[in-house]
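Sequence and fold:
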Amino acid sequence: MSLLPARNASRPGDDPIFALNREATQRRAGGERIINATVGALLEDDGRLAVLPSVVEALREVPPLKAAAYAPIAGAPEFLGAVIGDLLGGTSLADCATAVSTPGGTGALRHAVSTFLERGQSMLTSSFYWGPYATICDEHERSLATFPMFAEHGGFDLDGFARGLDEVAAKQGRVLVFLNDPCHNPTGYSMTAAEWTGASSILADVAKRVPTTVLADVAYLAYAKDTRSFLKHLEPLAERAAVLFAWSGSKAFTQYGQRIGALVACTHDAAARDAIQRALAWACRGTWSNCNAAGQYAVARCLTDAPLKAKVDGERDRLRSLLDARVEAFNRAAAGTALRYPRYDGGFFVTVFSAEAKAHAEKLKARGVFVVPSAGALRVALCSVAQADVATVVGAIDEVLRGG
């Protein structure tokens, strides 16, 4: 007789990425030369966690009594306003946006799945996706459906996207789709303007037939080459669909442990917007009740206090340059090798295609190189790899792919 319901009785308990990171850390502590390309956090070239000093100072300067008190259930108004302004300012989306605070971007994803789908329905995303998307769906008794992310020409598969949307719409009469862009996790791919135009048109067509919600997972937006242009392709969708943004302070402000995030929802239908706000606030109360107060107040200052914002932006520019140098080193080293991967010009991760990903990852571990295997690919977290080690990582993958 199990004390747990059947669906919960055999959970794996540990995230596979965190398990790989723990193994790599233990082997390094044992004296081995290890390159750990699993960690989804930006590290300095000496292996220390990269942080923005001005953000740390802003956290210290939050008045103790304010930091210790409960934040409003839906989030501190100054924080939510600052996020909307920073993310959407200057676009029509800012004029029709509402938001709630969440524990990191993951909380925003959770709210989207539980609020915009019925139990038993499916969320749609690309065939390469961040693994916890599936975990979130399963935990909330929804499922995950995928469309092929890449066409034969190597770009975003618009035809596959249209087919996937049509299938989900026909099956359940409602669509929720996650597009992790720019700097997609795990592939590092950023959609072109033409691809966004096509995707927007396809979504608008589906929205004529069934209630449609599109979520842009912008966790890595701060490290993209272009942080604004994609918004113009989402603006017209808010006329007939819900346009959501999963915003994360973890990467943009290098505060992974503070769990600062927000779900921003946009629609020009005022009645629908009010209903969405009430539903999201209700979901907050029913899950985490409220979020990190100090983090919200500190980030709000970082976004709205002009001198402080300038300091934070300058510190982030250094980290972006650090990451961009690794991206360039990877592309240089991979030229002429057996590595095949999507266009990669920024972001924490790149994915190398592999028909035997698990076996190849095991061989790499034997060489002291840790990457994350998934269906048909190896995820390489360049965010955690020193620039001097990038060529070594590429060389090891090349040898393994060639059968070495």
Summary: Residues 70-304 form a domain with the Aspartate Aminotransferase; domain 2 fold (CATH 3.40.640.10). The chain is about 45% helix and 15% strand.
